[in-house]
Amino acid sequence: MVAVNDKFPTETKFVYVPITPETSDIKACGIPGPLDFDKEFADKTVVIVSIPGAFTPTCMENHVPPFLEHLSDLKAKGVDVFIVVAANDPFVMSAFAKANKVSDDSVYFVTDPDAELSKKLGFTLQLPPGFGLRTGRYALVVKKGVITYVGNEPGSGLTVSSYESVIAAL
Fold it and tell me: Residues in domain Thioredoxin (predicted)?
């Protein structure tokens, strides 16, 4: 499992659908493309919040919204980029961003294809048949490629990966 002071896994590639004026409607689909963590964010402070699934009760109602509501507080603490990640397909993650009214260009809702990053970190979640392997519920703070906070939820609650825990760690 990953720990504080570990290097963030190199060659991490997410899949991302940028929201443009032409694709801002929730019914509009953009074109997915790779988002290379090393190229885009190597010199930045990044908060990554992983959720088991977009549009699920805890993720939609309690986990992601506080981060978005307090984005200015994260930025005041030095955060350059906020990423929400799940194993959902990139079109679902794009719709999830739109449903959350994301318009800030420092916020990304991305796909962890086949939960590869989460596997490397040791933070996957095996759900019952029909739901399959998912990204676990966790939060990371990565500063210039080094992990400075790890909050992997020990159960089904929302504690160490919450907004309150992450902001306190910054």
Answer: 17-170
Fold of 13-169: Glutaredoxin (3.40.30)
Question: How far is Cα 137 from Cα 127, in angstroms, rounded to an integer?
Answer: 12
- Indicate if 29 belongs to the active site: no
CA angle 151-134-52, nearest 5°? 55
Residues paired with 142 in a beta bridge: 46, 147
> Is the Cβ–Cβ distance between 147 and 6 less than 8 Å?
yes
* Digit-coded pLDDT (tens) for 26-83: 988 899 999 999 999 999 999 999 999 899 878 778 899 999 999 999 999 999 999 9
Q: What is the pLDDT of residue 130?
A: 66
Tokens of 146: 């080094």
- How remote is the C-alpha of 73 from its chain's centroid? 17
Q: pTM for this one?
A: 0.94
**Residue among 17, 49, 51, 59 flagged as catalytic:** 59
User: Do residues 92 and 54 make contact, with C-beta atoms less than 8 angstroms apart?
Assistant: yes
Report the amino acid identity of residue 139.
A
Separation of alpha carbons 29 and 37, rounded Å = 23
